[in-house]
Automatic annotation (TrEMBL):
GO BP, one annotated term: protein polyubiquitination
Keyword Repeat attributed: yes
Extent of the WD repeats: 139-168, 169-211, 213-254, 255-296, 317-351, 361-382
Protein source organism: Neogobius melanostomus
Keyword Repeat attributed: yes
One Pfam short name: WD40
SUPFAM superfamilies listed in its UniProt record: SOCS box-like, WD40 repeat-like
Domain SOCS box residues, every copy: 380-425
Keyword annotations from UniProtKB, A to Z: Repeat, Ubl conjugation pathway, WD repeat
This protein's name: WD repeat and SOCS box-containing protein 1
Highest rank taxon of the organism: Eukaryota
Length: 425
């Protein structure tokens, strides 16, 4: 399948609007390695943005303040009008921020940080451990946690508002590459590691480990929960995509279609679609309920042979992220480009230049994409904007609660069922 039609030239595509960047000043001895921003993350409520800015440091920035600083850059205050805002986060003073507002924080995690995840609690979601009535920690509804996955295999849990270390989880035997919280507010945390396992932790049970998920034969790079927290996707140094039932902690199925390591994954906001990124130069959008490929987003034209895609090339896709509008996808590749895609097209809508990009994430409202790089800096672009079709709005509403199979069995006319079903592009 071609990555985009012959009539489309990426040099003719529109450029995404660059709105700002967060820079990390480097010492002379600090130029080669150890500065990578392996992960970026937004708090679910939009209060904070966090990124691993190299070595042992995680930076937490109030997101609203960050956006205001970027807008100042465009208004001409303190810089040339129309130019993006460049902010150094090394010597920022928290004393200038009122105590009632979120404060910028610098957290020394003690080792290289590979994974980051925000988690917030919903009080009615109780711990799955029903035999223990007393817990050391009681997480309130207004509490925001940050989990950090480290090079030494440890996971540290921090209170974002106070900066205090709450828990130190130790069971992995190698790098913790990725972390993800269940979005239902249960504070169930999943860690993906180079020790070839996924581990499930219950933070409402003082961080006790609930389950070890085994199945990967090599490193695990990334994991992602479905919006209803019932399914977990995991990918790693292999060509398969794993889907897990998180009620029973069992493997549902493996999705086969990539030709190289799969390094990133994310579900659509309605849970109907799954996007996976691979070193084979492609992003695949799946109907994970059926295990079928709906769309292939190619980053090399003409499409490479499976042998070429399975080896080293300059189009490795490093990261993929689904926009909260459910219509757009962003990808980061080794060809120094960020691409914004529509799920209804095979060609990118807009592109942007980015050297040495490693990861990306959309803001909770979907208006901004953040991307981390090898030099520890983060770059921000405005997301593509368009009016959603009635079909998309209807489909999103229905697919939040119904699987593909359930839609197909609805007692409604066939054209209406087709209207609510994602199709192969």
């Amino acid at each position: 399948m071609a990555s985009f039609p012959d009539t489309v030239n990426e040099n003719d595509l529109g450029k995404a609007k660059f709105i700002g960047e967060l820079l990390v000043p480097a010492a002379p001895f600090d130029q080669k390695s150890g500065r990578e921003a392996w992960t970026v993350a937004f708090a679910p409520n939009g209060s904070y943005f966090a990124w691993s800015q190299g070595h042992r440091i995680v930076k937490l920035v109030p997101w609203t303040k960050c956006l205001k600083d970027f807008s100042l850059g465009h208004s001409g205050e303190g810089t040339d009008a129309g130019s993006p805002r460049r902010l150094s986060r090394q010597n920022s003073s928290e004393a200038l921020i009122p105590a009632s507002e979120p404060c910028e924080r610098t957290i020394d995690c003690g080792d290289i940080v590979w994974g980051l995840a925000f988690g917030s609690s919903v009080p009615e979601k109780q711990s799955r451990c029903v035999n223990i009535e007393w817990h050391r920690f009681k997480f309130g509804q207004d509490q925001l946690l940050l989990a950090t996955g480290l090079n030494n295999g440890r996971i540290k849990i921090w209170d974002v508002y106070t900066g205090k270390l709450l828990l130190n989880l130790m069971d992995h035997t190698d790098v913790v590459r990725d972390l993800t919280f269940a979005p239902d507010g249960s504070l169930m945390l999943v860690s993906a590691s180079r020790d070839k396992t996924l581990r499930v932790w219950d933070l409402k049970d003082d961080g006790n480990m609930v389950k070890v998920l085994r199945g990967h034969q090599q490193w695990v790079y990334c994991s992602a929960f479905s919006p209803d927290s019932s399914v977990l996707c995991s990918v790693g140094a292999g060509k398969a995509v794993f889907l897990w039932n998180m009620d029973k902690y069992t493997l549902i199925r493996k999705l086969e279609g990539h030709h190289n390591d799969v390094v990133s994954c994310e579900f659509s906001p309605d849970g109907a679609l799954l996007a996976t990124a691979s070193y084979d130069t492609r992003v695949i959008v799946w109907d994970h309920h059926r295990g079928t490929v709906l769309l292939e987003l190619g980053h090399l034209f003409p499409p490479p042979s499976p042998i070429f895609a399975g080896g080293s090339n300059d189009r490795w896709v490093r990261s993929v992220s689904f926009c909260p509008d459910g219509r757009h996808i962003a990808s980061i590749t080794d060809d120094r480009l960020v691409r914004f895609w529509s799920i209804e097209q095979r060609a990118p809508q807009t592109i942007a230049s980015l050297s040495s990009g490693l990861c990306c994430a959309f803001s909770p409202e979907g208006g901004v994409l953040a991307a981390g790089t090898r030099d520890g800096s983060v770059h921000f672009w405005e997301s593509p904007r368009s009016v959603s079709s009635l079909q998309h709005l209807c489909r999103m509403s229905v697919r939040r609660v119904l699987t593909t199979q359930q839609v197909e069995t609805l007692p409604i006319p066939t054209p209406l069922r087709d209207y609510l079903t994602y199709k192969v592009i």
